[in-house]
Amino acid sequence: MLNYTKAQFAAGSFKLFKHLMRKFPKGQIVPGKNPDFMVSTKRKSKGIEFAALFQAGKNDSTSRKAQAMRRQDIIDQANRLYHKSSLPPVRVDVTFNERYVIQRSKVPALSKRIAGYVRQHLPEAKQSFQDAYPWEKGQSFPMEVWQVMLHRTPNMVESYFTCSNGDYLPRLSNQLIQSYIDKKGMRYKSLSRKCNEVWLVMVVNYGMQNAKLEDIEQQGKAIFVTPFDRAFLLSIEPEVLLELNLEKPV
User: Fold this and answer.
1) In the list 115, 117, 176, 185, which could disulfide-bond 81, CB 3.0-4.6 Å?
2) Average pLDDT, integer, range 121-132
């Protein structure tokens, strides 16, 4: 979840979720903990729980996984540095050069260079900017970085810095979603004591994720077993909300 608190993550996700949902329930909206949000009327209440769907590693090569994690560390630090500038939210996707091994000692410098590059080339609202190796003449940019893409899309509430070549992340799948729903389902009973319905919203393309749109849409064809009353996949970029088909466990 990068370096955000659970409350910050839930607040940003809730705003986008509410915007994308066609018929959001009426009622008093109250942020909290367990669940993250309550939507209450005099007779009923709905609890909405948000969770970042992190994907487990598939690559057993320690060195490759270490490099991918180091790249993500660079991206997280660059995000924090950019956040301090108080500039508008932006989506940043960085592709690192696979031919170069990143040493731990270079992480702070690379983070600073990327954050500075984003500030320098921040596009206008609803616009994008892309640059790649070989860099512009006179632009001395680290050889470890292959490409930088910047996007400013409507309804962004916070910046997202991602690393597109985190090559040990598996693709989104029915099995991965079901296993995560099962894990979160263990909390359903305690959550349901506080409200009439409990919804689970799993957030993808947040932080180190890079789920493809077709993989997200494919989940709409499956049926997932869970005690949750409703469950959704929420993609931050592109902005997509997909309600999953559910059936209650026997």
Assistant:
1) 115
2) 87
